[in-house]
Amino acid sequence: MGGLRCAEALRRFGYTGAITVIGEESWKPYNRPPLSKEVLAKEVSHQAVAFEERSATADVNWILGTKAVSLDVEHNTVTDSDGQTHRYSALVVATGLRPKRVVVENSELANRFALRTLDDAMALREQLQPGRNVVIVGGGFIGCEVAATATKLGANVTVIHNASHPMLRQLGDELASQMQLRHEAEGVRFLLKRSVDDLIGETSITGVKVDDGEILDCDVLVEAVGSLPNVEWLSNNNIDRNDGVLVDSAMRVTRKDGSPIKNVFAIGDIARFANPLFDGVPRRVEHWNMPTETAKRAASVIAAMLTEAPSYPGILDDDFKPLPSFWSDQYENHLLAFGLTSLADRAELAQGDIGGDCVFEYYRENQLVGVCGIGMRAAVQSYRSKFI
Amino acid sequence: MIKIEVDMTKCQHYGQCVFEAPNIFRLNNDDKLEYTAVADDSERANVEAAVDVCPMQAIRIVE
Ligand SMILES: Cc1cc2nc3c(=O)[nH]c(=O)nc-3n(C[C@H](O)[C@H](O)[C@H](O)COP(=O)(O)OP(=O)(O)OC[C@H]3O[C@@H](n4cnc5c(N)ncnc54)[C@H](O)[C@@H]3O)c2cc1C
Ligand code: SF4
Predict the structure, then answer these.
(1) What is the domain count for chain A?
(2) A238 and A93, same structural domain?
(3) Helix axis angle, A290-306 relative to B44-53, nearest 10°?
């Protein structure tokens, strides 16, 4: 997504030269959020989620089904898995994340799924049938969305989560326990502060052994235990790859000594940067609008640099403080949030009623760092001006 | 002037567009999207940003 948005923004900022996108998946860019929601419940196809193609990027050279395997920042080249070497004037790293997996000895079993790609969603969709026993490891947003969708499709769902409530880190105690109640009312069973000890089965999975000894029947295992940044291909360039790629406020990739590489940028889920809206700590933010915002920021700098515009290098010092925005659908509960609720040390009910629609404010000490609502989207929107 | 169209059969009222172009898009008291169909050229960048972030790809700039 970041790659596509960056190509579009480059054209908008007046860059008319060649653009090449190298992508590991064979699909053209598509929208991931529906993969755990409506698309997983209905028909999973590329057509249902593909991003619309715009005329401005009709001449982009797509090299799909091919991985970037190495980078050489001294010679400005990227080598792909077909053995081709590509020279660049500017490079954008937008390789995103891949799911972590549950690590146990008995790991070769069929019917284990993770959810990141369209292919993952297609494979999982086939298995979510009425009456199947679905065990989801990880009660974060993706785990909970899959729990809701699978329940709606008639599966028996159990969620194993290592914290005291699902989505605790982002929602805080009160709202997280409320969402747990709503899932339980739909029939989801939660095993909290628990983890997986072992997987049981001959060729296909049949059971899960929980760390308290309980054995769950399992036809389908969904692993939603977080993700890892795809940074391996950047090795040997002295780049800071500690949890994603460290970038400065112009999205320029930073070396281990803190100096930026002038023509290498990173955007999207993989980019770790400081957002002055909150503080000076660089973080990766896996929120919906971040790939688009970071893509635009990088594109504005790249276009200015490559077209030798008078705004370069002054543009490097422009403010960059995007407000993260995020939503989630679970049954009829529509969550909308912005800011970074996970930074908060306390949450307060601000409007509505905890049993129905409501808005929570999230504070770190006395600074408002986030807002999240169930329903009441207009009310949540009205907080925007408190941040910007 | 620019003309804006939202496909209301696609729109899920997520309100992501409101963040980007608050002068054009808003959510009413029922949390449903309302928008101004014709806007000044000065709003173009904001509306383009809204087009980019709409998760349902429901927004279009028609001219
Ligand atoms: C199931 C799911 C549901 C989500 N739901 C929500 C939601 O409800 N709300 C919300 O706010 N956010 C949601 N998100 C998050 C959002 O989709 C992501 O933040 C966004 O897709 C990140 O974009 P990106 O460009 O950084 O990475 P991606 O879209 O992941 O793009 C990275 C691409 O790079 C490719 N790649 C990796 N390594 C290489 C390589 N070496 N060479 C070439 N290509 C490579 C990958 O195959 C991938 O296609 C969801 C994500 C998922 C997976
Ligand atoms: S962002 Fe898209 S789906 Fe959301 S309210 Fe706006 S038009 Fe509707």
Answers:
(1) 3
(2) yes
(3) 130
